[in-house]
């Protein structure tokens, strides 16, 4: 999972419980990541369920914006105390109490998974699900109940098939539900009520699509619907979610626009990851300022997440402009700085562990594709293939792979499929993740064309050759596609 995915369950006002204006104002400030101000205002409130909800939100957002082990330990201790006090003061059977406990245990589960404490995470997921079941008994038609069911329906589909029976034994009966449909329905149902409810259901819907839907356009389309609300669209969290969906769907004009707005409204410093994202954008555009953004992020993040990735990408910039000494320094820092909790940082470690550094021409091609410059990527790939002077199979396989991905991103799937099949025919023995990924993408196209048997053969090939980077993510994608074929 990626950092922003852990912002899923912000505690917002419930339409069933009358909240004071001051409480709602504090919530909006917290969602805009004005955490210091929010904390000051929370301390002025009298003890109430609303105050408990705000404290849990502030604690969670503090952890997500300062992702360190000490912050995690503090969050676990404080959230445990908060849950105990809440049950003592307000019980756990009402809809309001169940909703609070659903969110709090989900905060804990997501945080523990982030820090690879999977046993703790599993226990809290079960507690969160039990609280949701109580919500279902009392107000099954409420949009927040529907939102919770939609999330669990999405979540259980990510569990490997071999653990399916344990999921059912634990009481998760949402396996057959269409989670994305439920989340969209919850969002639409919330429209017409207060904006905070719209923000919660809408952002959860977008983030689940961003994290789990293989069609990257869907998350961006959902975010655009949410962006129509001026108050919600101005929140720092909404804008950051827009950055994520914009990157993933290749909408770099949207990314640039959001970054400008965040800079204009002084939102960049509230979430250090914003500098990382702007560094990425500027790297794709070959702008030297990307180094400043990555350095600023590293300074703010300390030894936190994405630091290794930031050092790697800084090294990429120096590589493509030909400064090998600075590039090598950055690659060395990947091994010395930060942690490897997220796949981005694990990927960074994998890329620098090898003796061979990134080939400047292949790196340039990769950045063109990652930056959604598909036409330029195709042109450069063709030039490399035409000028082939005894390049290695590994080099050629990557060039063809970027070419195929660019054609697919331009919706020219027939051309993309031809190149994927060329890679699998002529370069199958290349030891690279490009081989299993080519098999997966070819299978996806064949499924769309209803050539299911051939798609299965490529999925089998992808599973056999899945020995390199992104293994866990790849297995999840294979599993998802196989389920699609079964249905």
What do these coordinates show?
There is one protein chain. The chain has 487 residues and is mostly helical. The protein folds into 3 domains: 3-212; 273-353, Alpha Horseshoe (Serine Threonine Protein Phosphatase 5, Tetratricopeptide repeat), CATH 1.25.40; 360-486, Serine Threonine Protein Phosphatase 5, Tetratricopeptide repeat. Helices cover 73% and strands 0% of the residues. The chain has helices at residues 21-31, 35-42, 49-65, 69-90, 95-114, 118-138, 143-156, 164-169, 179-190, 195-212, 216-227, 230-233, 236-249, 252-264, 273-284, 289-301, 307-320, 324-336, 343-353, 360-370, 374-386, 393-409, 413-426, 434-448, 452-464, 471-486. The model is unreliable at 1-21 (pLDDT under 50).
The CA-CA distance between the termini, in Å, is: 26 Å
Task: Spell out the helices and strands N to C.
Answer: HHHHHHHHHHHHHHHHHHHHHHHHHH
Rg is 23 Å
Reported for the largest beta sheet, the result is: none
Q: Write down the overall geometry.
A: globular
> Average pLDDT across residues?
85
Please state roughly what percent of the residues sit in beta strands, choosing from under 5%, 5-15%, 15-25%, 25-35%, 35-45% or over 45%: under 5%
- List how many beta strands DSSP finds: 0
The computed structural class is mainly alpha
Number of helices, counting only DSSP H or I runs of 4 residues or more:
26
Are there runs of 5+ residues with pLDDT below 50, and where?
A: 1-21
């Amino acid at each position: 999972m990626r950092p922003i995915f852990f912002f899923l369950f912000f505690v917002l006002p419930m339409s069933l419980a009358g909240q004071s204006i001051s409480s709602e104002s504090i919530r909006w400030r917290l969602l805009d990541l004005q955490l210091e101000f929010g904390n000051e205002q929370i301390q002025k409130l009298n003890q109430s369920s609303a105050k408990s909800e705000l404290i849990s939100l502030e604690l969670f957002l503090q952890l997500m914006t300062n992702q360190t082990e000490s912050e995690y330990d503090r969050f676990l201790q404080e959230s445990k105390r908060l849950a105990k006090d809440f049950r003592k003061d307000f019980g756990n059977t009402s809809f309001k109490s169940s909703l609070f406990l659903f969110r709090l245990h989900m905060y804990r589960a997501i945080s523990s998974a982030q820090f690879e404490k999977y046993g703790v995470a599993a226990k809290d997921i079960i507690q969160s699900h039990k609280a949701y079941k109580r919500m279902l008994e009392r107000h099954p038609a409420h949009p927040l109940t529907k939102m919770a069911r939609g999330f669990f329906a999405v979540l259980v589909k990510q569990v490997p098939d071999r653990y399916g029976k344990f999921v059912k034994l634990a009481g998760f009966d949402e396996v057959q539900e269409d989670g994305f449909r439920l989340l969209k329905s919850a969002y639409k149902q919330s429209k017409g009520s207060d904006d905070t409810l719209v923000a919660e259901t809408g952002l959860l819907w977008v983030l689940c699509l961003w994290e789990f839907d293989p069609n990257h356009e869907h998350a961006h389309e959902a975010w655009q619907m949410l962006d129509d609300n001026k108050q919600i669209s101005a929140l720092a969290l909404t804008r950051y979610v827009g950055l994520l969906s914009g990157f993933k769907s290749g909408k770099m004009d949207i990314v640039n626009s959001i970054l400008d707005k965040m800079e204009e409204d002084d939102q960049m410093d509230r979430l250090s990851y914003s500098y990382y994202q702007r560094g990425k954008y500027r790297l794709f555009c070959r702008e030297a300022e990307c180094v400043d953004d990555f350095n600023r992020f590293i300074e703010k993040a300390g030894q936190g997440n994405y630091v290794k990735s930031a050092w790697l990408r800084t090294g990429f910039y120096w590589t493509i402009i030909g400064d090998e000494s600075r590039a090598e320094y950055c690659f060395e820092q990947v091994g010395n700085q930060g942690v490897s909790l997220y796949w981005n940082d694990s990927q960074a470690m994998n890329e620098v562990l090898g003796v061979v550094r990134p080939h400047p021409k292949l790196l340039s091609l990769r950045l063109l594709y990652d930056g959604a410059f598909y036409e330029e990527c195709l042109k450069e790939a063709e030039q490399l293939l035409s000028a082939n002077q005894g390049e290695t199979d590994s080099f050629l396989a990557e060039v063809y792979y970027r070419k195929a991905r660019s054609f697919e991103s331009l919706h020219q799937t027939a051309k993309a499929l031809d190149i994927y099949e060329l890679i699998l025919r002529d370069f199958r023995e290349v030891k690279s993740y490009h081989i299993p990924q080519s098999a997966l993408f070819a299978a996806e196209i064949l499924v769309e064309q209803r050539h299911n048997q051939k798609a299965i053969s490529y999925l089998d090939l992808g599973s056999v050759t899945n020995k390199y980077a992104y293994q866990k993510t790849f297995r999840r994608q294979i599993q998802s596609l196989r389920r699609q074929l079964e249905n």
